[in-house]
Amino acid sequence: GYNTTQASALTGVVAIGTAVGAVVASMRMRLDMATRVIPLGIAMGLLLILMVFISNIWLAIPFLIVLGGLGGYLVVPMNALLQHRGYTLLTAGRSIAVQGFNENAGMLVMLVVYAGVTALNLPLHTLIWGFGVMVVVGIALVCGLYRGQWWPLRVA
Fold it and tell me: Average pLDDT in the 124-138 region?
């Protein structure tokens, strides 16, 4: 029920958290430790699912700052690792081109999925919940593939 200005302010709150998370990651993380942040993606997906239950703006603001902070802390090491590995496998220009293509292709796929789901007139809460589950499962599979397991939550 927010107007455009109010919704934009909430986006700005997420951006503040993202900036803080990115700065903290740049100070604390090294390239050889970059893969340790992958499980934060699972935490982000779980927080997305919990976001459905927040209806108070004073709870939403710190929640969105934390969500943005996790995103910033996750993106900086992952992007550094991607650029480093891309540079060692390809030239710097090709690495950037491949990264840009994949980011844009991912956004296009998500827009198609969003358009398809909204055409079904599903409630917004269902969309948020579904996206959160998709993030959790996707990152869990990435964790599992990185560890050489078919499922990352396997008990040793």
Answer: 89
Task: Calculate the alpha carbon distances from 31 to 44, 76, 85 in Å.
Answer: 21, 10, 11
CA distances from residue 10 to 4, 13, 33, 57 in whole angstroms, order as listed:
10, 5, 32, 9
Q: CA–CA separation, 144 vs 154, rounded Å?
A: 9
Integer Cα distance of 85 and 124 in angstroms = 38
What is the pTM for the complete model shown? Answer: 0.79
Per-residue CA distances from 124 to 47, 71, 120 (Å): 16, 22, 11
Give residue for tokens 């803080």.
20
pLDDT in tens, 69-116: 999 999 999 888 888 877 777 777 887 888 889 889 999 998 998 899
Task: Dig out the tokens for 147 from the structure.
Answer: 């560890």
Helix, strand, coil shares of the chain, percent, nearest 5, are: 85, 0, 15
